[in-house]
Amino acid sequence: MLWIGEPGSLVGTQAAPAEIRGTATGVRVTDLRSERLMSTAAQPVIEAQGLVKDFGRTRALDGLNLSVAPGEVHGFLGPNGAGKSTTLRILLGLIRPTAGTAAVFGLDPWADPVAVHRDIAYVPGDVSLWPNLSGGEAIDLLTGLRGGANDTLRNHLIEEFEFDPRKKARAYSKGNRQKVALIAAFARPARLYLLDEPSAGLDPVMDAVFRRQIERVCRDGATVLLSSHILSEVEQLCDRVTIIRSGTAVETGTLGELRHLQRTHFRVTGLANPERLAALPGTHGVSVGGSAVEFDADPGDLGAVLAGIAEPGVSSLSVAPPSLESLFLRHYSDGNSRKNSANNHNENADASATDRKGDRTGSGAL
Questions:
Q1: Most buried among 94, 204, 239, 339, using CB within 10 Å?
Q2: For each of the chain's 366 residues, which pLDDT tens digit applies?
Q3: How far apart are CA 241 and CA 162, in angstroms?
Q4: Counting beta carbons within 10 angstroms of the beta carbon of residue 156, is it exposed (0 to 12), middle (13 to 18) or buried (19 or more)?
Q5: What burial letters (b/e) apply to 262-271, b meaning 16+ CB within 10 Å?
Q6: d(CA 180, CA 137)
Q7: Burial letters for 298-316: b for 16+ Cβ neighbours within 10 Å, e otherwise?
């Protein structure tokens, strides 16, 4: 396993001192989501039950449940402070949960880190490199800890990401530091890829390259846990999604399942009496502006709504299906979101938490 994080944080496949513990980088996905989902009956690659993690008086995780099946690309969504990075650190065996259990490949990552790390690759959202090494040297060092990169693939990735490996790491922007981690990740395969905001700092062109590379390596059958704020990225790449809020999973399912829970948005122009739509079953938020009316409809009442707007005077109709964004925002716009303010600094608090003596990382942050 290879670790890219704070300076001095890196790991090989053998047990390493606390100050250089970490994980490998890489990724994978398949084009046909139905084929990937056929493997869900097998033993989960990741299984977390009732995870609790306290940092002093701050609770970062509060009974989190998470299951990721073999071959699955699983989206892990939540705002800053929701507990995503803390969860990944527990799965990497870098910190120990206060309560609950976590298993990776059926093993306890805290008790059996060497066995778990052999098949894990990890990419953080904020990469720090050794300032006096060139980008190419950093890539070779990181991939060398996992047995070395495929030279042809390494060179292809450098070209794809338009990366100059000759410059010193101290001269790289955030996006170029991220490219080092991604190239090192993709240049050698792994069974499980833990990706914590992996495309952070990439411009739209490079983000498209990142997505293509995920799809390419994913066809090999590996499993991916993708933590991301980019909802379009999750919708394109992921088979299932877990939404986490205040350290607890509040929604889990396939994108199709989650969309069925959401309302469809309508915009109709030319109705003779648009105000009457408020009386139709399953309609919400009816808003009239000029000759147009907009409203949302529950999925079980779409037939009645369509019948209610079918009249000769209608000149235009637009229908927007429920999106992952609408589901995500629903969970963070209700009154329960007040807990997030207490957890705003959870992800950064790991490095200075009072119970660090129970963790393996010296620097704490990933």
A1: 94
A2: 444 444 333 433 333 333 333 344 443 333 445 455 444 457 899 999 999 999 999 999 999 999 999 989 999 988 788 899 999 999 999 999 999 999 999 999 999 998 888 888 889 888 999 999 999 999 999 888 777 888 999 999 999 999 999 999 999 999 999 999 999 988 988 889 999 989 888 899 999 999 998 888 788 888 999 998 777 788 888 989 998 888 999 888 887 777 655 678 889 998 888 888 888 888 888 888 888 898 888 877 888 888 888 888 888 888 876 666 666 666 666 544 444 444 444 444 444 444 444 566 543 333
A3: 31
A4: middle
A5: bbbbbebbbb
A6: 10
A7: beebeeebeebbeeeeeee
Report residue 253 as tokens.
Answer: 């399912």
Give yes or no for a contact between 337 and 78, defined as CB atoms under 8 angstroms apart.
no
- How far is it, in rounded angstroms, from Cα 191 to Cα 94? 19
Question: Residue 110, SS3?
Answer: coil
d(CA 66, CA 324): 19
Q: What sign results for the dihedral spanned by CA atoms 177, 181, 184, 186? A: negative
CB 1 within 8 A of CB 13: yes
**Residue 48: beta bridge partners?**
66, 102
Domains in the chain: ranges and CATH: 18-258+346-358 (3.40.50.300), 263-321 (3.30.70.1710)
The reported pTM is: 0.70
